[in-house]
Write the structure tokens for this entry.
Amino acid sequence: MPETTAPEATEVPSGAVAADWAQLAEETALDARTYLVTLRDVAAGAAPDAALPMLLLALSQVLVAGARLGAVEDVVPEERFEPDPGPDPEVDPLRDSLANLFEGLDEYADVVDPLTTPELGVGTVSNDLVDIAAALAHGLEHHDAGRPLEALWWWQFSYLSHWGERAAAALRVVQSLLAHVRLDADEEAVAEAEFDALHP
């Protein structure tokens, strides 16, 4: 069998790499803005009956954005320090509104680290949702100031170190709440609804 030689690696032009990063930054910024708008709408009580489905969709979408960040190589910013984007947005009013929305359902059992210890802690949905929002908003400050690489670096770092885990935990709780709402109906009420649907 004749010997084959591997083709020489071709260097990817730096412009192409920059374009890829820019596209990823734009996609992530769009997902971040969508999450923040949805969270503010839910906290403001804009559609109380749709709050859980809206959060389910928002968390799922932002986790897709995080998965993209986790799947790519480490983002290396141009500077070896993070430029100051200015004061972080005030999130306490948002946290308070969400805590009121989830009153009586906010706390949940949280596994501290499934790989290192089965120890259980206590998490809150409102804190998780706002922690995610704060991290995304911080990255948007960089993005909107014309520093997309710094924004990507922050979003990736904070996804891997904190908000990705919080988003996954919050998604599980929101999905569980939605399942209880949909499935834990009174059997007699369900039977009456089925009868009414079959005999208009």
